[in-house]
């Protein structure tokens, strides 16, 4: 993914058990934070052609 | 390599006469110079059309998929590795095929050669180390090693890894090649630069799918890119769709690609889509110590689990 030009932080993997609520919150906060810093994705975005 | 042909014909005729195989798959001269085409010899007479030179870059394993007859097949190093992959993936049975191994000294890149001359090339004659190119008003002899396909220049498995017959003694393998300089150059780019690099690379792609069709790994009855329900990827020239096709095809070849170069060779607009499969090849080697198609008895890394598999990317 990174090699395709997707920034490393934009795609994250984590393993959270249903019992690990604190870890879940932590991961979500961190991911959201990282993505906000990156801003909207610019690559591999398809724009629909203008149809008259 | 040119001297192989007598032995190729002799073995093929014997196999057909003895009824060991129903056909032998090899090469015959194409209609244009430097474009040999596959030839399926079903009788000893048909064997006479066989040729062998440095224009046999098509991967013949592509013609084995799900066949039911008994087949003799000529196999260069890379073809043999794809045959192993086919056996692992149950696309052909080992006892159904007689592999005629051809120690390979590399195939020439017809695009490199065409680019050297302004006019149309009429004839290409080769001997062991040189290629003589003739056309209207020009004639030039070039060193074969200067015009090899990039994957052949970097090839470290030139001898067949599996064979029943051999047309010649094994040749020396290259050991001092650095296979991944180009991949490392791309890895060093920033995400934005990578995106731009690939966009530029894929811009000329006309979605003809020759690369997919030439590849022995791409045998799905309906390729994801042809499906319309659901439609995974748009079918037009939109660059995002084009890139998605190429990225996904490369992923489907992960841990399986032998860098045979058939895909690149077949592209009518000369795109080097091997940069994608090579990156995955490099990753497989670095992460799992894996090279595709070396041993029919070892399962590939993507269908086995080992407790030590790298998982640093999971937080
Ligand atoms: S990749 Fe290797 S075995 Fe295949 S054609 Fe090139 S040199 Fe020969
Ligand atoms: S992806 Fe290209 S280099 Fe790899 S096995 Fe297929 S045709 Fe050969
Ligand atoms: S062969 Fe070339 S033009 Fe055709 S789909 Fe593949 S990359 Fe695109």
Please describe what this structure looks like.
The complex is a heterodimer of chains A (52) and B (315). Helix content of chain A is 35%, strand content 0%. With 52 residues, chain A is mostly helical. Chain A has one domain. By secondary structure, chain B is α/β, with parallel strands linked by helices. Chain B folds into two domains: 1-105 and 156-176, no CATH class; 178-315, no CATH class. Chain B has helices at 4-17, 77-88, 110-115, 150-153, 181-187, 191-202, 210-214, 239-252, 262-266, 274-288, and strands spanning 23-28, 37-41, 71-75, 97-101, 121-126, 130-135, 138-143, 165-166. In chain B, strands 2-1-3-4-8 form a five-stranded mixed β-sheet. A three-stranded antiparallel β-sheet of chain B has the order 5-6-7, with no helix packed on it. In chain B, helix 8 runs parallel beside helix 10 (274-288). The relative contact order of chain B is 0.12. Classes of the chains: A mainly alpha (52), B alpha/beta (315). At the A-B interface, loops of A face helix 6 and helix 8 of B. Bound molecules: iron/sulfur cluster (3 copies). One iron/sulfur cluster binds next to helix 2 and helix 4 of chain B.
